[in-house]
Amino acid sequence: MARKIFAALMLLTLASCSYAADIDLGEGYHVPHGFSGVYIASSDGTAIQNAVDNIQDGGTIILSGSFKLTRDINIKKSITIKAQDSNNKAVLEMTPGVNKRVFRCQGDSITLENLVIKGGFTTNGGGVKVDAKTKLMTITNCDIVNNRSVLGGGGLYSDAEKLVLTNCNITSNDVSLLFGGGIMVTGGEFEMTDSNISGNNAFGRGGGIYFTGVTADMNNCRVTNNTSRADGAGIYLYSKTLTLTKCNVSGNLNGNESSNIYADKNASYTEN
Question: How far apart are CA 192 and CA 183, in angstroms?
Answer without folding.
Answer: 11
